[in-house]
Amino acid sequence: MQHTLTRLTLLSSILILSTSAMAEDTMVIDIKSGKKATSPNEVQPLAAERSAVLPADGGDFLKQLNGVSGSRFGGRGIEPVIRGQSQTQLNVLLDGAYVHGGCPNRMDPPTSWAALETYEKVTVEKGVQTLQHGSGGSGGTVLFERDTRSITDPEDGLSGKVSATAMNNGVKHDVSADLTKAGEKGYVRVFAQDREADNYEDGDGNEVRSAYKHKQAGVVLGVTPTADRTIEYSYENNDFSDALYAGAGMDSPEEFGSIQRLKYKDKFAGKVESIDAEVYSSNIDHLMDNYSLRNPGLAPAAQRSVPTTSDTLGGKVALKSTVGNTEVTYGVNVQNRERNATMTNGLGAVANLMWPGATTDQTGVFVEAETKLGADKLKYGVRVDQVKADASKADQTVGLMAPRSPNQNYTAVNSAYDGDPSADETNVGALLRYEKSLNENTTVFAGASRTVRTADETERYLSNWSGPTTSWVGNPDLKPEKHNQLDLGISQQKGNVRWTGTVFADKVDDFILRDKVTTGMTAGSQSYRNVDADLYGVELGAETKLSQKVKLSGDVAYVKRTNTTDDRAIAQTPPVNGKVQLDYNGAKWGGGTRVRFAAGQKQVDLLSPVEVGESSGYGVMDAYGRYSISKATKVRFGVDNVFDKTYAEHVSRSNAFDTSVVRVNEPGRTAWLKLETEF
Questions:
Q1: Is residue 543 within 8 Å of residue 583, measured between CB atoms?
Q2: Superfamily of 4-678 according to CATH
Q3: Could you tell me which of 351, 237, 338, 340 has the C-alpha nearest to residue 290?
Q4: Rounded distance, CA 100 to CA 96, Å?
Q5: Residue 195: strand, helix, or coil
Q6: What's the pTM?
Q7: Binning pLDDT at 50, 70 and 90, where does residue 151 land?
Q8: 87 three-state secondary structure
Q9: Distance of alpha carbon 221 from its chain centroid, rounded?
Q10: Per residue in 293-326, pLDDT tens?
Q11: Residue 2 pLDDT exceeds 70
């Protein structure tokens, strides 16, 4: 990251100078209550997701929402898929910070680092609704957000929550504590969590490798000299150990991640009305191997171990001004990543430089305006990003038998590669969105956007050479994806009935496809190439109050993805899926039942190395409840998969550990209990 320190120093200077010089929209899920803010441009999820589920991580939580699927790898690391897009097609921010996992095979997607108990809300923006969070995000943006000032008691400044959880199928224990003490001029918040999970059983009673241990702790320090001004520093770390993955050829004996943030927010009178600025760093150290947790007797020469590091530095400055009836937000984003991964055997010999000093530096500027037209709104904006990528170790030669460099591997599977791994891009994105109230009951919206996503470090620089026909190698010559999207939606509420609908279409130039090499000496190996693609889909949701305490709701989502260059389906496309839910919400008692369903998926790409094959549909029932012991203390309980069905999500990984099972199956019948108190 040649220019990282210079750029972050500049960003920090802007933050500090702004402090001295200026001193004189979306699905929002409240983590504490489970309530959603209404939005005319979203298919709203069900009424009680938080009461109905006990998620393993952030990705597991998100897949409860309409239009969101989850790819299972093991007990943690559920990869969210929004409108058929995943990985770096989604922008995921953890309280403003980007976290890029340490596993090239994505054992730890960004959502796996989101410990839900420590966040106040989750905001899910499907598709492109803003340009402010950085480049990319063609599939959507997910914001896990903390708001420490909002949770402090105004009388004594003390607030907190403690919880304990147990399950009979998976989690052995999960205890967490979160305490905040605030005064007139500042606050201190500390939190910690300790979770241990065993392997769970699927509906057939088969044990699924999914155990892990997780310890988390963090501190948030805030200074609040005025009601509008906040300066905040936060630090948190996450330790994972003994993590087993049925969907991989390796497990992860240890993984450590830390995140630091420095934020400044303020409002003032003048041409510039507010500032929202921050810098952050996230550092991941990850280890995976094929012997310590599954093959302890494996000969050293056959052992494989991959220690990795993934470091991200970044920040943002956003200023806001008002001109007439138009609010303008403008600023800069910086994100710089450096990733290293080295595969060795049990004798210490290096087999592959899987991430050979792979770096991506992104600097973007944006301006976005929202004009009020009576009861209607028009949003429009543009952003420009400069991207520089390189692999500093691309020429280093390693190998157990016949030494090879990553550059040699890139050339072997991509014959047009010229030997220069560096990339330099200028990417332009834009957004135009109009929301109109047809009457007091009905709102419609239309949005058009262009989003550009650069290739990530795995797509561009992965070097996992195991032979000419069995390797997995990146492509440094990849062009960035260009998404040209159109969204149309409607939301209506009449009496006790509310329904929403959205249709979307995305024409993608240079879609980055993970595919098999089909010609030449390396036929059968995996690499990446650009194709053109079409994505489109529909989301519908509705809910009705049967009485003051009883609500019936449901939703359904459909997406289709086509590789138009080759006239093939795109692998791992979610099938039609949805749910129907009935909830009772009384003063002391609450509860409900939910049926989750998915159709079978026949639109598959059997030529793809990541396609598992066609899948069968399923329907699964969950039951859940809550009882308020006191105003501050309540108990939640439930049974997931009541009828002990054996099923798997279509987008889940193939079961690499037990080849008699097609995909990594979801848990069978699971009873759970959670006791929580707030003060």
A1: no
A2: TonB-dependent receptor, beta-barrel domain (2.40.170.20)
A3: 351
A4: 13
A5: strand
A6: 0.92
A7: confident
A8: helix
A9: 26
A10: 999 899 999 999 999 999 999 999 999 999 999 9
A11: no
